[in-house]
Structures are given as C-alpha cells and as structure tokens.
C-alpha cells in the first residue's frame, strides 16, 4: 500500500511553524563578532574547504593558514587558567604526565573493580552469612572486612585480609584460606590500591581538581541528583512534545472524514524488522499514526509523522546520526507485513508499507520527523558543533601544541597543519569536514514546543494559516 499525501492541515503546520533554531548559510566573509571568535573562524574555514572540495578544487595555502591560526587561538583560549576549558586542560595533563595517564586508566575501571570486590566480600562476609555459618575465630575479621569494603577503604581491607591469613586457626580451613588469598591477590584490589596511592601525586591532584571544575564527580551525591533532575527534565520535554502532537492529531481527527488519527509514545522497534539495530534509534518518543476510518476488529495503522524530544540543540545534533540510522532501519520493513510495536499505550499494529516509505532524503525528512525542544535559541548561534570542537582539540597535534604553550607562550603552531591534512583526507574526519551542513540539517528539523503549539492553533481547518487573513 502507498501512503496518501500529507493532510493539508499537517502540511501547513510544517510550512508555517517558526524555526527559531535555524542556521544561515556560512559566508566566507565573517562578521566582526565571528572574526573575534576562533571557533566561528574555524567553522567558516572548514565549510569553505568542504565547498571547494565538493566543486573539485583544492583548498589553498591561505585557507590552511587561516585554519591553523584559528585552531591555535582556540587552543590558547582553552588553556587559559581562569576562563579556559578544564576538560581540555585535563586532557593535556593526561597527555603530559605518566602518573595521570595511569590514574585515568585505572579510574576508568574503578567502578567495575569496586562492584567485583563488594560481591566477593559479601560472598564470605555478609552479616547474614556471619550469623549463619562463620566460625567464632572468623567473625571479627570478616566483620571488619565487610566494613572496609562498604566504606571503600581498600588499604584497611588489604590489611584485614593479611591479618586473617595470619590467624593460627586459618590452617584448619583450607577453603576459607583460599577465598582470602584470592581476594588479597586479586587484580581488582591491586588496581584500587594503586588508584589510592596515585591520588596523592601532584599531577593527579591537579587533574582531579580540573575535573571537579567541570562539575561533580561521577557517582557523587550531587552527580546522582543532577542526573535524576536531567532525566526528569527530559521526561517533561517528551511529555510536552507528545501533548503538542496529540493536539495536532485532535485537529486532524476533527476535519478528516476519511482517516482517523492517534498518538503513541515510546514506540519500540521490534526485532522482526530486518536490518542493523545496533547504533540505530530503536525507540521513538512520539508518533502520529493514521488509518482509514472503519470498524476493523484489529486495525493496523500507518506511521504518518515522528517526533523526538530533546532538551537542547546540542543533544539533537548528537542524536541525528542515530535518528537517520533509525529511519533507515524502519525503511527495511517488508511492505506486505504488519508489525507489532510496543508503546506506552500498549501494542500497536503498523503496516510495513508505511515504514518502507520512510526516507532520509533531505526534502522528505522535513515531512517525516521533527525535533521538539524547550530551550531558548542562542542569541549568537555556535557555528562549530560541540563534537567537532572536541575532536579538533583532542587531536594529538592539538595536545602537543597545548603542552608546548605551557612551556613556551610563543610556541610555533605549525604542527597543527597535520590536522588540516587529516580533515581533508581521512575518513575519521569526514564528520568534522561536513559538520556545518549537519548542524544546519538538524537545526532545520528543530522547533520549539511553544512554536509548534502556536502553529497548530493558528492553522485553519482547511489547512490555511489564519494569520494569512489577519
């Protein structure tokens, strides 16, 4: 089956809704404000290089130098002790100091090691186990062992294990001795002890201080609270977006005599749809469904429009590749199959043909999906995306130049030229080279929830915005 054209009312809403997050085409002649901003200058230079390459031309030496100068300025700004970027400064410190590299490597696995130790200690020293089966000579040491694990006192835990092994009665219980030796000599405890020892290193202390400047440490009470608040905000944005889409469904339902509409939320893609599910969006926030009116006993619906809710433009930009892969996945559906999707509203049956019709073509995309956001638009839009900025700063040549700056303020930035060549030639830099078209694409798909509601309220039942007659 093939989908009918967009209903006039929906078509008009999409045509008239304000796009406050939209970005303009980049002009190589930057404004004074952009010229003062190295990130904006970088974005303009990168986009100019992309256009030249798409026209079959090679970017010249002047453009390369403009890129190098702007990247050097961005690195200098990021290294400023007062107003710089603590995450980048931490990366430079990790690049320079072996102790910090070791600490960062150990810290990456620390939570897993803590869980492994807690599990192993609980297996032999949990209070309930002590009451049931521990022998009298074991109880005091095992209680201290459990207390040390609970408080993450790894030196105390190690000392307690040694004390237990020194007990005269240990020779009477070979299995228990084996458990204690396994804990004491385990790699998890060794790594956590080394992590504690490194914490007093001067470079590591600076590294930890830089991370604290970025926000609360992972796992801390404040970080957990902030994570919960972020989840609540995300859920609130999703609810508002679904309400706006529901209002649209109500308007369509009232004027369309042939079709009926409904909205479902949290629609999960079934594994029966062929194609690669990994790294693709497999849960959609809000979906407008439609079908021909009738009294079918088990009706099947068509996917008419999809909405994703995001708390910020950066979140949408990061999400876009997953969204495009998700649309490609849905388009793998068999057109003659009816698929069952789980949603917050229960199981919904969907015609595969409506999924097969989805495409990631630029023109069609704007008639298939919207990002809904409740954030205010930037007064001065950022032209260089956060992910591209991070990749540029994280490049080995950038870290080496930043390290040289710390030793010599007038260090030569010429080594940054290798990033320019990588940008133009290496596949892993493709996303950075094309970062501005990607930013424009996602911003074109973004609308504020208030603007969407206003467009829905403003459009007349015949699909013509009432403001036309005002």
Structure, described:
The protein has a domain at 100-222. Mean pLDDT is 91; it is low at 466-470. Helix 7 runs antiparallel to helix 9 (136-150) and helix 7 packs across helix 12. The chain has a five-stranded mixed beta sheet with strand order 1-2-3-6-7. It is of the alpha/beta class. It has helices at residues 8-16, 32-35, 38-54, 61-79, 86-96, 98-108, 110-125, 127-133, 136-150, 154-165, 174-184, 187-198, 202-214, 221-255, 313-330, 352-356, 362-365, 386-394, 396-407, 417-425, 430-433, 435-444, 449-458; strands at residues 259-268, 283-292, 302-310, 338-343, 346-351, 369-373, 446-448. A hairpin with a 2-residue loop joins strand 4 and strand 5.
Summarize the structure.
By secondary structure, this protein is an alpha/beta fold. It has helices spanning 8-16, 32-35, 38-54, 61-79, 86-96, 98-108, 110-125, 127-133, 136-150, 154-165, 174-184, 187-198, 202-214, 221-255, 313-330, 352-356, 362-365, 386-394, 396-407, 417-425, 430-433, 435-444, 449-458, and strands spanning 259-268, 283-292, 302-310, 338-343, 346-351, 369-373, 446-448. The protein has a domain at 100-222.
